[in-house]
Specification:
The chain has 102 residues and is of the alpha/beta class. 30% of the residues lie in helices and 17% in strands. Helix 2 (30-34) links the parallel strand 1 and strand 2 (42-43). The longest helix has 12 residues, at 71-82.
Length: 102
C-alpha cells in the first residue's frame, strides 16, 4: 500500500478504484453524506462505526476511509484496525476532493 502525502483524497479514490474488492467508506454523519458524497461510497458514520462489523465481514477487505477533513476518518481507521481489519487507510477529507459527488 502506498502512503499519500497529507492523505490525498483524490489519489486515495484513484487507488480505491484500482483495488479489487475494496470498499470506500464515508464516516461523516448521515445528513452530511446525503448532502454529497463520493460515488460508490458506503456511509458508516463514526458515531456508529461498530456497524462496520455487520457491513464488512471479511477483515481482509481493503478499506479506504474518508470524512470531511480527514480527522474523523483517522479515528475510524484506528478503530477498524483495533477491530481486526488488516487493510485500512485514511484517504483524508471530501473537502479536498476534486471529482463529482452524488
Amino acid at each position: 500500500m502506498s502512503l499519500f502525502q497529507a492523505n490525498d483524497v483524490n489519489a486515495g479514490v484513484e487507488e480505491y478504484q484500482k483495488t479489487l474488492q475494496a470498499k470506500l467508506i464515508d464516516v461523516r454523519e448521515e445528513d452530511e453524506y446525503a448532502a454529497g458524497h463520493i460515488p460508490a461510497s458506503i456511509n458508516i458514520p463514526l458515531s456508529s462505526i461498530e456497524a462496520a462489523r455487520e457491513e464488512i465481514t471479511d477483515l481482509d477487505t481493503p478499506l479506504f476511509v474518508y470524512c470531511r477533513s480527514g480527522n474523523r476518518s483517522g479515528h475510524a481507521v484506528t478503530w477498524l484496525k483495533q477491530a481486526g481489519y488488516s487493510k485500512v487507510q485514511n484517504i483524508g477529507g471530501i473537502a479536498n476532493y476534486s471529482g463529482k459527488t452524488e
